């Protein structure tokens, strides 16, 4: 386990909880909290604190997701990624963009080996290796009659979008990524975790 991952809060099973995972406290009724400011316009906020309550694996905290994306911080260990360093996105094959923040190569190698969801997805999981990425905004534009949220992708910091729609997540578009399956990367190029 990378040292920075060992410092993360744990779930009840003793597993380190990635920094982007949402936490729920017992009094949380699950409602979506919308607020507004001049920087983001309408946006979804979240009061959760890592380590308090129950971790919901598979669900990202929108506040930390946006921080990590915008500040080039690792979605697993939460630490910054050096401006010139290689970084890793994990997702489906040929994904045009990623909803999960970038990872340090060592953190990505660890996640691929221990995360049950990634392990179950097997060969359909691909890594995108790059040194930089561009951001866009995933915003909620309305609610359909059946209650599902309508969403659209807007340019990063788009002024009109701040008035029209509610920001939830940032999307990362990797610059000229090198793509390979997770298992091939682990076998060939990924940093090795010391036993
Ligand atoms: Zn949260
Ligand atoms: Zn990391």
Number of domains: 1
- Large-scale geometry: globular
Structural class: alpha+beta
In helices, the fraction of residues equals: 10-25%
Strand order of the largest sheet: 5-6-10
Order of helices and strands: HEEEEHEHHEEEHEEH
Question: How many β-strands, per DSSP?
Answer: 10
- Strand content bin: 25-35%
Query: How widely separated are the two ends?
Result: 9 Å
Largest β sheet strand count, sense and barrel closure = 3 strands, antiparallel
- Uncertain stretches: none
Structure commentary:
- This protein is an alpha+beta fold and 195 residues long.
- The protein has one domain.
- It has helices at 3-6, 62-71, 105-114, 116-121, 159-164, 182-188; strands at residues 21-24, 33-37, 41-45, 54-60, 87-92, 125-130, 133-143, 149-155, 166-174, 178-181.
- The longest helix is centred in the middle third of the chain and has 10 residues, at 62-71.
- One zinc ion is lined by residues 4, 74, 76-77, 79, 103-104, 107.
Keywords:
binds zinc ion, three-stranded antiparallel β-sheet, single chain, globular, 195 residues, alpha+beta
Which helices and strands occur, and which strands form pairs?
Elements lengths: L2 H4 L14 E4 L8 E5 L3 E5 L8 E7 L1 H10 L15 E6 L12 H10 L1 H6 L3 E6 L2 E11 L5 E7 L3 H6 L1 E9 L3 E4 H7 L7
Antiparallel strand pairs: 1-4, 2-3, 5-6, 6-10, 7-8, 7-9
Bound molecules: zinc ion (ZN) (2 copies).
């Amino acid at each position: 386990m990378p040292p920075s991952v060992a410092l993360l809060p744990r779930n009840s099973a003793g597993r380190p909880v990635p920094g982007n995972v949402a936490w729920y406290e017992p009094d949380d009724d699950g409602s979506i909290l919308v607020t507004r400011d001049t920087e983001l316009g309408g946006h979804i906020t979240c009061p959760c604190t890592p380590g308090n309550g129950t971790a919901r694996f598979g669900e990202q905290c929108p506040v930390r997701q946006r921080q990590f994306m915008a500040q080039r911080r690792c979605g697993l260990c939460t630490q910054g990624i050096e401006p010139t360093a290689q970084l890793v996105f994990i997702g489906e094959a040929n994904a045009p963009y990623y909803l999960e923040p970038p990872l340090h190569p060592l953190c990505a190698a660890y996640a691929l080996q221990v995360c049950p969801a990634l392990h179950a997805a097997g060969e359909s999981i691909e890594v995108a290796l790059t040194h930089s990425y561009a951001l866009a905004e995933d915003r909620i534009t309305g609610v359909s009659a059946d209650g599902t949220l309508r969403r659209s992708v807007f340019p990063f910091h788009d002024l009109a979008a701040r008035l029209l729609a509610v920001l939830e997540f940032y999307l990362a578009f990797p610059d000229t990524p090198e793509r390979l399956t997770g298992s091939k990367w682990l076998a060939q190029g990924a940093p090795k975790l010391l036993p």
